[in-house]
C-alpha cells in the first residue's frame, strides 16, 4: 500500500472537516449499505455514499431578521431613520408591504425557521422556563419532524451558518453541558455565534460559539456577529468556493437594551424634539408618497393613554427625545453592519449570486419600555409611580444607550410612532401594529421589476417554502431518518415578477398571550385581550381574571377599505364575524392553541413548567 504523507493527510482532512465532513456525517449515517460483504475483498463489493452537492450555480441564501423595529421606522419603508443599505437592497429588489410576523420574537423565529405556524411547532410562547407550559402548543421544543431551513439546505449541499439571536433553546438545555439537540447545531447549522436567549447586553452578551459559551471581547455585539459571519463565509470560500452557503443573520438590534456608541446616537441630536405626533404625520406622508401605503389610508388616533407631545413637560420632552435618538442611532448602526456584510460579498464577487431576504423586525415596535421609557427596570419597581420613574430616568439620562443602560428601551409613544401607520405594538397579535413588518427580497439576477412594491399577503412561515421553490429543492420526506410533517407556509415566488398576482396565502391566525386574530382574504376578526402585564400600569396581579377569555369582545375590520383598522364592522356584519370566529376555532384546533394562556397565567404561576437556569428571558 502506498504511504500517504502526513502533511497531505492533514491538508486533506482540514478541507474535509470544514466543507464536507459535517454535512456528510449528518446524512451518511442514515444511508443503508448497498454493497456486498463477503469473507474477502475478492467476493465483496464496495458501496460509497456520494458527496451531496447543490445544483451547479445554486445561489447563496441570506436571511436577515431584525428585532423589535416597527413598520414605519426605517427610511426604506417611509421612516425618517436612515437605513441606506436596506434602501439599496430594496431599490434593487422588491419591497413587500403586506408581510406579517407572529407578534413576538420566539414564535416568529420558530415559524420562520420551520415554515410552519408557531403553535404547530410548540412555540406558542417561549422556550424560557417561566414562559413555557406543558402543552403541545407551548412547551417551547420544536419537534424533530418539523425540520428547519438549515437542516433542509445542509442535506441539499449547502453550508449553513447562523449569527446573532437564536431564542429557541429551552433554558434547561442552555448550559455547556447541553444536551445540544435544540441548540442551533442540533437544528442544522454547521456553525453558530450569538446568544440563545431572547435578549442580552450588547457589550457583555451571554455569548455562545457552536456548543460552548465564550467570553465577549467588549465591542458591541452587532459588530462581533458581523465579523464572525464574514469569517465563516471567507473561510468557506477559501476551501470550497463552488459550494453555496445559507446564512441566518439575526442581530439583537433593535431589541432592548438599546445600546450604541455616541458616534451613532448623536447623528440624531435634536431630530426628534418635535415629538412623536409630528413624527407619525411625517412618516405617514412619506409612506403615501413612496406608495408604501394606499392613498386613501387614514392615520389612527394615538393609542390609549399616550399623551399628546405638546402636553408633556419640558423635562419629559428632553428625556423622551433622548430615548428616541439612541433608538434611531441603534437602527442606523444595525443597517451599517449589514452594509459591511454586503460589501464583503461585493468584494469577494459573491453578491450577484446571493438571494437575500430582509425582514425588518420580528414583530412590531416594543411596548416593553412602558409610558416613560426604561433604563434599568425601575418601571417594575412596586414603589415607583409614574413621576418617580420620570425623575429616576432624568437623573440617569446620560446612561441611555451606554453600557450602563442595561435595559434601555423607549417610551410607548415612540413605539407607536415606529409602527406608523398602525395602532398598537409588539405582543398585540390582534393588530397590524403587532404583526406587520417590512420584507425586502433581493436577487437582481432573478427579479426583473427591481425597485417595485408587492402587496400580496405574506407571513413569516412563507420564507422557507419561498426559498426552496426558488432553489428548486423539494421539501424532504425525511430528515435524519425522521419522516417530516407538511409545511404550512405559502411560497411567494409567484409574486416576484407579477405585481398584480392574487395573494395565495389566504388564511392566517395570530395568538400571543390572549390577544388574537384571524385573517381571510382581506377581512380580519380580532380580540385585544386583557389582562396584559404592560397595560399601562392597570394590571393587578392580585385580581383573578384568568377566566375572562369568555368576556373578550371581537372586532371586525375590512382591510381592503380600512387599511389601518379604524372602523369596527362587527355590528354591521355579524355573519362575517361569525364566519371568521368559526375559522379561528378551526385554526386553533389544528394548530394546538388550546388551552389559552395569558400573562396572568404566567405571573400567577398557573402554568406548570420545569425548573432550570433562566436563559436571559428579558422582560
From TrEMBL:
Residues 59-473 form the Sulfatase N-terminal domain. InterPro entries: Alkaline_phosphatase_core_sf, Sulfatase, Sulfatase_CS, Sulfatase_N. Keywords: Calcium, Hydrolase, Metal-binding, Signal. One of its GO terms (molecular function) is hydrolase activity. Residues 1-23 form the signal peptide. Transmembrane segments: none annotated. Belongs to the sulfatase family. This is Arylsulfatase. It comes from Mucilaginibacter frigoritolerans.
Amino acid at each position: 500500500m502506498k504511504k500517504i504523507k502526513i502533511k497531505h493527510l492533514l491538508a486533506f482532512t482540514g478541507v474535509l472537516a470544514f466543507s464536507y465532513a459535517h454535512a456528510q456525517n449528518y446524512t451518511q449515517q442514515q444511508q443503508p449499505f448497498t454493497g456486498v460483504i463477503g469473507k474477502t475483498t475478492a467476493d465483496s463489493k464496495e458501496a460509497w455514499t456520494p458527496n451531496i452537492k447543490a445544483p451547479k450555480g445554486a445561489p447563496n441564501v441570506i436571511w436577515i431578521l431584525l428585532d423589535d423595529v416597527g413598520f414605519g421606522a426605517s427610511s426604506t419603508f417611509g421612516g425618517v431613520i436612515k437605513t441606506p443599505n436596506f434602501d439599496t437592497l430594496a431599490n434593487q429588489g422588491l419591497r413587500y408591504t403586506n408581510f406579517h410576523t407572529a407578534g413576538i420574537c420566539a414564535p416568529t423565529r420558530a415559524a420562520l425557521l420551520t415554515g410552519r405556524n408557531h403553535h404547530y411547532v410548540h412555540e406558542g410562547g417561549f422556550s424560557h422556563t417561566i414562559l413555557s407550559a406543558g402543552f403541545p402548543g407551548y412547551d417551547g421544543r420544536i419537534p424533530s419532524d418539523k425540520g428547519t431551513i438549515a437542516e433542509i439546505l445542509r442535506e441539499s449541499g449547502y453550508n449553513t451558518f447562523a449569527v446573532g439571536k437564536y431564542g429557541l433553546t429551552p433554558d434547561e438545555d442552555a448550559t455547556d453541558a447541553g444536551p445540544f439537540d435544540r441548540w442551533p447545531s442540533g437544528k442544522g447549522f454547521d456553525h453558530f455565534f450569538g446568544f440563545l436567549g431572547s435578549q442580552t447586553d450588547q457589550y457583555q452578551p451571554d455569548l455562545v460559539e457552536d456548543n460552548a459559551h465564550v467570553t465577549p471581547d467588549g465591542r458591541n455585539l452587532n459588530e462581533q456577529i458581523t465579523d464572525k459571519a464574514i469569517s465563516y463565509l471567507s473561510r468557506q470560500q477559501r476551501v470550497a468556493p463552488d459550494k453555496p452557503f445559507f446564512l441566518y443573520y439575526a442581530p439583537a438590534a433593535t431589541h432592548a437594551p438599546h445600546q450604541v456608541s455616541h458616534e451613532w446616537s448623536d447623528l440624531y441630536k435634536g431630530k426628534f424634539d418635535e415629538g412623536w405626533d409630528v413624527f407619525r404625520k411625517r412618516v405617514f406622508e412619506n409612506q403615501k408618497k413612496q406608495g408604501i401605503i394606499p392613498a386613501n389610508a387614514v392615520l389612527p388616533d394615538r393609542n390609549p393613554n399616550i399623551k399628546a407631545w405638546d402636553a408633556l413637560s419640558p423635562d419629559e420632552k428632553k428625556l423622551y427625545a433622548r430615548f428616541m435618538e439612541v433608538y434611531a442611532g441603534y437602527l442606523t448602526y444595525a443597517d451599517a453592519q449589514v452594509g459591511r456584510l454586503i460589501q464583503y460579498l461585493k468584494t469577494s464577487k459573491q453578491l450577484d449570486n446571493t438571494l437575500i431576504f430582509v425582514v425588518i423586525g420580528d414583530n412590531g415596535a416594543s411596548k416593553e419600555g412602558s409610558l416613560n421609557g426604561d433604563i434599568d427596570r425601575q418601571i417594575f419597581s412596586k414603589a415607583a409611580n409614574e413621576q418617580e420613574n420620570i425623575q429616576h430616568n432624568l437623573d440617569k439620562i446620560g446612561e441611555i444607550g451606554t453600557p450602563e443602560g442595561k435595559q434601555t428601551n423607549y417610551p410607548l409613544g415612540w413605539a407607536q410612532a415606529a409602527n406608523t401607520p398602525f395602532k398598537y405594538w409588539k405582543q398585540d397579535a390582534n393588530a397590524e401594529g403587532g404583526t406587520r413588518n417590512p420584507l425586502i427580497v433581493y436577487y437582481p439576477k432573478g427579479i426583473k421589476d427591481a425597485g417595485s412594491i408587492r402587496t400580496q399577503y405574506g407571513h413569516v412561515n412563507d420564507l422557507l417554502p419561498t426559498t426552496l421553490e426558488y432553489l428548486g429543492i423539494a421539501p424532504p420526506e425525511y430528515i435524519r431518518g425522521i419522516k417530516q410533517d407538511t409545511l404550512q407556509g405559502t411560497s411567494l415566488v409567484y409574486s416576484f415578477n407579477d405585481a398584480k398576482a392574487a395573494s395565495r396565502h389566504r388564511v392566517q391566525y395570530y395568538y400571543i398571550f390572549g390577544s388574537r386574530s384571524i385573517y381571510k382574504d382581506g377581512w380580519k376578526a380580532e380580540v385585544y385581550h386583557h389582562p396584559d402585564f404592560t397595560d399601562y400600569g392597570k394590571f393587578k396581579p392580585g385580581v383573578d381574571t384568568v377566566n375572562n377569555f369568555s368576556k373578550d369582545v371581537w372586532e371586525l375590520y375590512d382591510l381592503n377599505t380600512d387599511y389601518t383598522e379604524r372602523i369596527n364592522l362587527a355590528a354591521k356584519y355579524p355573519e362575517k364575524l361569525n364566519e371568521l370566529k368559526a375559522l379561528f376555532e378551526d385554526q386553533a384546533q389544528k394548530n394546538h392553541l388550546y388551552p389559552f394562556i395569558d400573562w396572568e397565567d404566567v405571573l400567577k404561576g398557573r402554568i406548570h413548567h420545569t425548573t432550570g437556569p433562566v436563559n436571559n428571558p428579558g422582560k
